[in-house]
Structures are given as C-alpha cells and as structure tokens.
Amino acid sequence: MDNVDFEACKDFGINIKNTPGMFGKEVADIATGYVIALARQTFYIDRKIREGDWPKPVGISLNEKVAAVVGYGDIGKNTVERLRSLGMNILVYDPFIKEKISSPNISFANWPERIDEADFIIMNCALSASSFHMVNSEIFPKMKDGVRIVNVGRGQLVEEPALIRFLNLK
User: Fold this and answer.
1) 74-129 pLDDT, tens per residue?
2) 68 in helix, strand or coil?
3) Coil/strand/helix, residue 144
4) pLDDT at position 20, please?
5) At what angle do helices 42-50 and 24-40 cross, to 10 degrees?
6) Reduced to 3 DSSP states, what percent helix, strand and coil does the chain have, rounded to the nearest 5?
7) Are the C-beta atoms of residues 121 and 74 closer than 8 Å to each other?
8) Which of 1, 14, 76, 103 could disulfide-pair with 9, CB 3.0 to 4.6 Å?
9) Which position has the higher pLDDT, 85 or 170?
10) Hey, is 116 helix, strand or coil?
11) What is the pLDDT of residue 2?
C-alpha cells in the first residue's frame, strides 16, 4: 500500500481496498525459501556450477537456529509456522501484538532486544515511520557474526548504505 498514490486514485475515481491475508502464505514461502537457500548455500552453488565449477558447499542445519521474525501479521505468522517446522527457535518482534502465544520455541521481544541471538533476521513488516531503517548502523554491530538478513517487506526497512559500510568493515 505504500506505493499507491491515493490522491491520484481519488481524482480518477479508483477505489483502493486493502486485502489482508491475500498473499501471506505465498510471501512466507518465499521468505522460508530464502532462509533455506542461505543456509544450504544454493545461490553460491548455482553461480559456481554456471561458471563451470563443482563446489563442495558447507551449509548449516536450521535445526535449533534462531530466526528473528520482524512483523507478526499474516506474513509473519505464516513464516513462523514454516520456520518452526524446520526446528528453528523464533524471536518475534511486533509492537502491535496484543496477545502473545505461549510456545516452547517462540518468544516475543522488543526491537532490538536479543538480536545478538539471531542466526537469521526476516523482515516482513510494513514500511512506516517506526519501521523505516529499523535495521541500521546502530543495530549492525549488535548482530551475531554471520547473521543472514532476509527482507520480504520493503527495502527501506534496512538502511542499505549503512549495511554496505558495515560489510566493508568486516
């Protein structure tokens, strides 16, 4: 919805409706696919095979790894369900959640508490004034070495220039 020019639509008599729940499962599939691909290095393997190499990748198991899921709406809930089935422990960040479920491998925290525990950070919240660049130069040093970030929300959730500067320091 953040890419819709509401004033132009109003001027042309175009009705705009939010359709929550329409693509939560599909986007969660994509987020989970990225997590698996990063853990098993399938992007690297594909690139190397296309270059004529036959690499011996060293991936990681997802079992018992920690996924920080930012946003617990339709996409977030579906992502959590998929990641739990892989044996992952989940940290959920969402200031708008009123009812926090009780589960042995799901816990809720306030951003960015416990971010240093995350092996994966999955951004799937809406872009707003409070989420703009929430992953930024103050957060990067708090993250675990080797953390993987998946952003299926909006690009501006991650401050890309700060990310590039931080990666160049490593």
Assistant:
1) 999 999 999 999 999 999 999 998 777 778 899 999 999 999 999 999 999 988 89
2) strand
3) coil
4) 76
5) 70
6) 35, 15, 50
7) no
8) 14
9) 85
10) helix
11) 65
The C-alpha angle with vertex 56 and arms to 50 and 57, in degrees rounded to 5, equals: 90
Radius of gyration of the chain measured on its C-alpha atoms:
18
Single-letter amino acid code for the residue at 124? N
Encode pLDDT of 3-35 as tens digits.
788 899 999 999 988 777 788 999 999 999 999
d(CA 137, CA 134): 9
CA–CA gap between residue 103 and residue 72 (Å, rounded): 15
Q: Say which residues have a Cβ less than 8 Å from residue 94's Cβ, sequence separation at least 6.
A: 70, 71, 72, 73, 76, 108, 125
Cα 123 → chain centroid: 3
Helices (H) and strands (E) in the chain, counts: 5, 5
Cβ(68)–Cβ(120) below 8 Å: yes
Q: What is the residue-wise DSSP string for 3-46?
A: T--HHHHHHTT------TTSSHHHHHHHHHHHHHHHHHTHHHHH
Tokens representing 38 are 């990063």
Query: Which residues, in sequence order, are bridge partners of residue 108?
Result: 92
* Length in residues, the chain: 170
